[in-house]
Specification:
6-stranded mixed beta sheet, Alpha-Beta Plaits, elongated, alpha+beta, 67% helix, Rhopdopsin 7-helix transmembrane proteins, 502 residues
Length: 502
């Protein structure tokens, strides 16, 4: 709906709600006036869905139907009381049928909103909403439902009707809490209008229940103020649908990990304490009259809180695993980063020394990588590193560890492998180089005595020797002699002669 129509709708609602205060208490147009406000709000919702294809018509239509029937109940009550002379035994039952239809319409419509917004089922929001509903539901049961059921003067159907209102309010509250929790830090004006309208509706219902319980006779200004609150709730729903944010209200959102904010923690803690506080209050009065309901709600809240804690623990475990993976992984290539392969190399040295096994370490450096970057750009250079590392990772054996040394240099740790066995493994990497690029390599066999720094120093010296000899080759560092240069074709010839262990 355009901003012009939105402004026109808001101006019309303000005029109708303000004008309602000037209608005399016994005027015949009072009830039709209220009904018209509700019908206009429902009509605005239907019109908005026709103008905005991104708004799910079924969900908004269900909400509009609930509002339409609720507003119709006002005129039904007026006709039954003033024209038919029927007021029911304790409540206006014909009108209540229409008024109560608000709840299934809103619950169904808002549930569709929540379902469409979630790419996957978010059980944390369901559990949090359930905790709030169970805690407040106990208060509703003790102070409204149970108190009403003990009124022997009320007809059975009247009792059921009165009990249906708080149950409907709780159902709507649960869906609303779930929607608000899904919103997170997003500030959707349409959702705020819906939340405001529901809050006003529920406050009005609670006030009417108190009036019914205490048999109060409201004065005209107080009665008008209460009716005005319901009219404002009608207007809020229409404004929600007419606002441009309504289209985003039901747009699917990617699943995001949601923490527990201080406000949410306070809400959950407060509602979880309701059974205990209620039990203490009744015990101080000398009679625990709702022991069973308090016990059942306490058990339900305990199970819900346990489920919530389990979910949070699982979330912490997943985040710890992700953090561990990030701390060990090079961001560009996905290989082991320097910290990770240094730890792995230290552990491999200890293991090979304990079991008297050989260990070879190779340091690989791309030839003329700077010139490649200068010619094709750094993005092309990053792509070259990613493609090469991905291809090499597929070519390594399961015990081997491939990591990024830094820049365009990579390290390959090969446990239980001597220098002759390592050469054909390294030569597998050469045809996997993208874009026809080459690399130089230094290779060293651990002598069972040197530390990590000394081993890496020998490997690094062998690598620079390979570059000095013309690049695109592997140089083996011998602990007792000058590094030996290996031509790329040599390993293949030695392997064919049976001189290399693969």
């Amino acid at each position: 709906m355009s901003k012009t129509l939105l402004r026109g709708y808001v101006a019309t609602m303000v005029f109708l709600i303000a004008g309602f205060w000037f209608i005399p208490a016994q005027s015949m147009i009072r009830a039709p006036w209220q009904t018209a406000v509700g019908w206009l709000s429902a009509g605005a919702m239907i019109m908005a869905t026709r103008r905005n294809p991104s708004m799910p018509r079924a969900a908004w239509s269900l909400c509009a139907a609930g509002l339409f029937l609720n507003a119709t109940g006002i005129s039904v009550d007026f006709v039954c009381r003033d024209f038919l002379g029927y007021a029911g035994s304790d409540v206006a039952l014909p009108a209540d049928v229409f008024w109560l239809m608000l709840y299934p319409g809103l619950v169904a419509g808002l549930s569709m909103f929540a379902h469409r917004r979630s790419a996957a089922q978010d059980w944390s929001t369901v559990i949090d909403a359930s905790i709030v509903v169970v805690g407040l539901g106990l208060l509703s049961w003790v102070f409204i439902v149970d108190a009403t059921l003990h009124k022997t003067t009320m007809h059975l159907i009247g009792l059921l009707v009165v009990v249906a209102y708080p149950i409907g309010d709780l159902a709507v509250l649960g869906v609303l809490v779930r929607l608000l929790l899904q919103q997170g830090r997003e500030r959707n004006v349409a959702l705020r209008c819906i939340a405001l309208g529901l809050a006003v509706f529920q406050c009005g219902d609670l006030t009417w229940l108190v009036v019914t319980q205490l048999d109060l006779d409201l004065s005209h200004p107080v009665h008008t103020a209460l009716d005005t609150a319901f009219l404002a709730a009608f207007a809020c729903f229409g404004a929600a649908a007419a606002h441009p944010d309504a289209g985003e209200l039901t747009q699917p959102r990617p699943r995001q990990e949601r923490g527990v904010s201080p406000a949410l923690l306070f809400l959950l803690a407060t509602t979880s304490l309701i059974p205990s506080l209620l039990l203490i209050w009744q015990a101080m009065r000398g009679a625990v009259t709702n022991g069973v309901s308090i016990g059942l709600s306490s058990a339900a809240l305990f199970l819900l809180v346990v489920m919530r804690v389990i979910g949070l623990l699982r979330k912490v475990e997943v985040q710890a695993q992700q953090l561990n993976a990030i701390s060990r992984t090079d961001e560009l290539t996905g290989l082991l980063n320097r910290r990770a392969w240094m730890n792995e190399l230290g552990a491999a040295l200890e293991g090979c020394k304990r079991w008297n096994m050989s260990l070879s370490v190779a340091l690989i450096d791309f030839d003329h990588f700077k010139a490649f970057n200068d010619a094709y750009g750094h993005q092309a250079g990053d792509k070259l590193l990613r493609e090469a590392s991905s291809a090499w990772r597929e070519a390594t054996r399961s015990p081997d560890m491939l990591g990024r040394y830094g820049g365009e240099e990579f390290i390959l740790i090969m446990p239980n492998t001597d220098a002759q066995g390592a050469l054909p493994l390294l030569e597998r990497f050469r045809p996997l180089m993208p874009a026809g690029q080459t690399f130089s390599c230094g290779l060293a066999l651990w002598n069972q005595e040197e530390g990590i720094d000394e081993l890496l120093r020998r490997v690094d010296a062998a690598l620079y020797r390979a570059k000095e000899l013309g690049r695109n080759r592997t140089v083996v560092a011998d602990p007792r002699s000058t590094p030996v240069a290996i031509d790329p074709g040599t390993p293949a010839r030695l392997a064919a002669a049976g001189g290399i262990r693969n």
